[in-house]
Amino acid sequence: MPATDLQLMEKIVSLCKRRGFVFPASEIYGGIGNTYDYGPLGVELLRRVREAWWNRTVVERDDVVGVDTAIIQNPRVWEVSGHVGGFSDPMVDCKKCKQRFRADKLQDARCPERPSKHPGECGGELTEPRAFNLMFRTHIGPVESSAAVAYLRPETAQGIFLNFLNVLSSSRLKPPFGVAQIGKSFRNEITPGNFVFRTREFEQAEMEYFVPPADARRWFDTWRAERHRWYLDLGLAPERLRLRDHEASELAHYSDATTDIEYEYPFGWGELEGIASRTDFDLRRHSEASGVDLSYFDPETRERYVPYVIEPAGGINRMALTFLIDAYGEETVEGDTRVVLRFHPEIAPITVGVFPLVKKEGMPEKAREIEAELRRARLATFYDEKAAIGRRYRRQDEVGTPYCVTVDGETMKEGVVTVRERDSMQQVRVKVAELEGWLREAVRGWRRPGG
Ligand code: ATP
User: Among 182, 203, 218, 417, which residue carries the largest CB count within 10 Å?
Assistant: First the structure.
């Protein structure tokens, strides 16, 4: 990794801690390797990313509905889905330092004793690769017996397949239609890392789109394009995104085509989201194993078939990290370094900062009044009266607040405020009475600078 990129990641991790996006988990007890908690701004960022995904995938469409399914399901689910037998990464152990690494990701890992080297290059001998199951096991009930073994779900998709018939019979939908879910998944990752890019618990956003088998390819192409478009619409740099089709040898056991949407992270290209054509593998396997017929009878064509499934699957935390990295910028302004997060206003944790120019002449009271009004209109606001106005702008730039409203002498006399834009740093005068509408319009019309 070039030094500058390493530094960029370090800067982002430190900004996240300093400004309350992401904290190391269990920090006062020394942490718990690569596990993180989200602070006041981080939780808002996650909420906005989740909502943007849900709005686009469910709310704005008439062919997709949502579910929220249990994390712990009948353990048979994971045997039938192939996760008990096959959900494993090939692992090697270093005989010298006793650490375990993913055999297919040695180039991404560092020797814990000599971080400038990859495992195996430090003189330590590596074992032959062995399969390691990634599912977290637990027990149901008071007795830890093998009969009571259960698993924390490693993906949300299976909960959707299990409810295929329930959704079909309780809604008016017929294929093609989709069922979406956002929720926590758990994987006992051996090499978590790169901050929140890979963690052992994370939130997934998945959608299973059920189609007649003959239409699977067309819908795969449609969702591939739609998911790419979503990232562009939320402002990610087009040149740092690419679609990578899997080679036949890479495909998961259930898939006949998969494309990864990859992003160029400071640590290299990595998967941001996967779009998989899952054939009828899951519905067919669950039909066979449960004895419940999960096929669909089309009353118009009088045909019965097991739908094929197209699945866009992404991680909310990984998306939020990607938006953070992509938004990060540094520039010199009047001899100072300005750090700015150029978030799309829809996902910025704070939409508008509200400041009195000075702490007198009724300005704080007026600013608080305006802030309260914007709050009531459900805009995310932040009131600040400390320090010089320039410093207050910079503090909001650093957390990605797209607009700052300043109450000054003219507000008191003529009812107009100054709105300062984060990206251009330009200021415009807006009537207080028109402020909410102006802000909403600006959020809707935002374009990536230079894009
Ligand atoms: P990888 O090859 O990176 O382990 P995967 O191909 O197993 O990932 P999927 O099973 O396709 O990942 O999961 C869908 C999405 O969930 C990924 O694109 C990613 O955004 C997210 N995701 C998967 N594993 C993790 C993790 N350990 N931490 C954070 N997000 C994850």
Answer: 417
Residue whose CB lies within 8 A of the most ligand 1 atoms, among 184, 318, 319, 322, for a mutation test: 318
- pLDDT tens for each residue of 100-111: 888 888 888 888
- Our answer on whether the CB atom of 198 is closer than 6 Å to any ligand 1 atom is yes
Whole-angstrom distance, CA of residue 445 vs CA of residue 391: 27
CB 99 within 8 A of CB 112: yes
Ligand 1 center from residue 150 Cα (angstroms):
22
| pTM given for the model | 0.92
Going through 81-152 in order, the beta strands assigned E by DSSP cover 88-93, 100-102, 130-133, 137-139, 149-151
**Distance of CA 135 from the midpoint of ligand 1 (Å):** 13
* pLDDT confidence of residue 44: 98
The amino acid sitting at 78 is W
Q: What are the pLDDT digits (tens) for 353-409?
A: 999 999 999 999 999 999 999 999 999 999 999 999 999 999 999 999 999 999 999
Cβ proximity of 357 and 58 under 8 Å = no
